[in-house]
Amino acid sequence: MKIAIDVMGGDNAPLAPICGGVMAAKAYGEEILLVGQQDAIHRILKEQGAEGVNGITVIHAPDVVDMHDDPATVLRQKPESSMAVALKLVKDGKADAIVSAGSTGALLSGATLLCKRIKGIRRAALAPLMPCAGGQVMLVDAGANTECTTEYLLQFAFLGSLYAEKILGIQSPRIGLVNNGSEDSKGDTMRKETYALLKEAHEAGRLNFVGNVEGTDVPAGKCDVAVCDGFAGNVMLKTIEGVAKFMAGEIKKVFMRNAATKLAYQACKKGMDEFRELFNQDAIGGAPFLGIAHPVIKAHGSSSDVAFMNAVRQAIAYTKSGMIETVSQNIDHMTISH
Amino acid sequence: MKIAIDVMGGDNAPLAPICGGVMAAKAYGEEILLVGQQDAIHRILKEQGAEGVNGITVIHAPDVVDMHDDPATVLRQKPESSMAVALKLVKDGKADAIVSAGSTGALLSGATLLCKRIKGIRRAALAPLMPCAGGQVMLVDAGANTECTTEYLLQFAFLGSLYAEKILGIQSPRIGLVNNGSEDSKGDTMRKETYALLKEAHEAGRLNFVGNVEGTDVPAGKCDVAVCDGFAGNVMLKTIEGVAKFMAGEIKKVFMRNAATKLAYQACKKGMDEFRELFNQDAIGGAPFLGIAHPVIKAHGSSSDVAFMNAVRQAIAYTKSGMIETVSQNIDHMTISH
After folding, report:
1. B102 closest CA partner among B317, B295, B297
2. Which residues of chain B does A270 touch, with a Cβ-Cβ cutoff of 8 Å?
3. Can you give the pLDDT of all 338 residues of chain A as single tens digits?
């Protein structure tokens, strides 16, 4: 198996993606394609004493996608960028999956354009894992689609369910529909229609639909997959991050208050480390773009080398899972006949 | 001034609203109308030794709105309910404002039907205050309107700005538009149109619009008023509550870990009490329904007596502020000519 890493994307590029790729090659024994400016890659491999590591291949791409580029058009304008070249490797069957910490919008457009969506899937969704009571919850869609339809939401539910089952190893994942109340009748027309379709899928044994979930229910761990339009999903994702950061800052103040609290911190250090680890995105790796016909993993912009290694682990598991084939085989259950 | 309290609404009714009303009468020197089943009210006043407290008037309402009633029709079906009677007091000029911890939907429908909206205001919005870095942020709308228009959002911005200025005492409140990215071009058509109108209002000196805000920005305190459709606003409000609860639970585990951490807690107790106070909704009191032609304060369902007292404080400040008149005088800036 070959995993392409766009080494020019993200805040810590190219060092973190290159080091993460090397760590992944050693840890997982699969072939890693480091895509980017070859001089920089070779220099860093040398500096890191990783020149001869088994399973590392360098693929030159002179250009770089940056945050000022228009996401919708950049991959056409910069066909020699590391992101475009890495996506083309996947498209051409020269790589099985791609990991990138570059622009979310550019990666989504590029993946849709080059790797295509699974036949019958209307839109790809960004599906990050968030911490919650008892483990993690997958949010589908967390921002790829500002405006959605009932059919998109139905597909997000199936895609999330299959990912949770096949890649995360959750048996019969609990699917919740993010809504403004838990009662069956809540939400706008799109939510009500989606509720009816998910209930039908549940009754047919195709999904484990647990009903509407509110903003309180998602961090409480009431579902494994939270289905949402990309606007509210993005608001939820960022709000979780924002509140976690705000509260962590306030907790820090509690411990920094005086000499006694600083001493108290020593007793609590192990617990606090575990607490911080809950919100450590690096341990997760990245978020898949579900619905694309090949595994595409969007790593967080601030990804460390460990985050890239974990994103590669995710890409390998995704590739091995056979999930994309399963989606294709069951696409009839995920489409609304008009 | 007369403030009506619906004493049959909320998880702790009628005890908490009655005791809160008595505390408010003593603290603020305004007349409090306790609306509900008179036998229960007199019995509780007696038990609490509050029979002769100055400024307390009991108004009998035999019926009660409960959570199983249809919010849209209950006040017509139960005209003798405490909520309906209290709203009618306001409508008839026998009370200046109302505080209720009853069903949000019923209070919204009833307030709209009986107290009416300010002329020109299209929809009332629920506007709770949430904790954030550096203070509090008002979320408008947090759930009254599942589906919105550009004009609603424009009005929410003005209503929130005026409330923050006149009742919360914030000079030139910073207005943010909740969006899925901070760039000017983000969001759906409604968000883009609203952005343009808010920018125009800012340039004309009518609002202090600070641009789009993401879910991360709201807990970080980047605005005083966050403008949102009621669906995403409800998701944001509940997500803040959910994450805060989840994290508080995890922090508790850190301190409950062993004998040393339990001892450490003693050193941190004062700081932890202040930390918890940040998220104490009772200290705020309630959320106004902005846009109604009289002050209507929705108290949290789990409100304590202190919460009711603070909600009355809010109702008094709202009544004194002259905000509703200011909205009427400036309604031309808040409407879109068609």
Report:
1. B297
2. 257
3. 999 999 999 999 999 999 999 999 999 999 999 999 999 999 999 999 999 899 999 999 999 998 888 888 888 899 999 999 999 999 999 999 999 999 999 999 999 999 999 999 999 999 999 999 999 999 999 999 999 999 999 999 999 999 999 999 999 999 999 999 998 889 999 999 999 999 999 999 999 999 999 999 999 999 999 999 999 999 999 999 999 999 999 999 999 999 999 999 999 999 999 998 888 888 888 999 999 999 999 999 999 999 999 999 999 999 999 999 999 999 999 999 76
**Residues written for chain B:** 338
Residue at token pair 């997959």: A225
Residue A147's region, left for phi above 0, alpha for psi from -120 to 50, else beta, is beta
Q: Please tell me the distance from the alpha carbon of residue A51 to that of residue A45, in angstroms, as a whole number.
A: 5
Q: Do B147 and A253 touch (CB under 8 A)?
A: no
CA A181 vs CA A192, A229, B82, B281, B286: distances in Å: 12, 16, 25, 20, 19
Contacts of A266 (CB under 8 A, 6+ apart): none
Give the residue from B240, B296, B336 showing the smallest Cα distance to B125.
Answer: B296
DSSP states along B32-98: EEEEE-HHHHHHHHHHTT-TT-TTEEEEE--B---TTS-TTTHHHH-TTBHHHHHHHHHHTTS-SEE
CA B145 vs. chain centroid, Å, equals 15
Asked whether the beta carbons of residue A232 and residue B231 sit closer than 8 angstroms, the reply is yes
What gap in Å lies between CA B246 and CA B279, rounded to an integer?
12
Per CB-CB distance under 8 Å, the chain B contacts of A244 are 243, 247
- Cis omega (within 30 of 0) on the bond before B141? yes
Which candidate from B219, B246, B275 shows the least CB-CB separation from A133? B246
Does any CB of chain A come closer than 8 Å to the CB of residue B232?
Answer: yes
Give how far Cα A323 sits from Cα of A82, A138, A329, Å.
Answer: 27, 16, 10
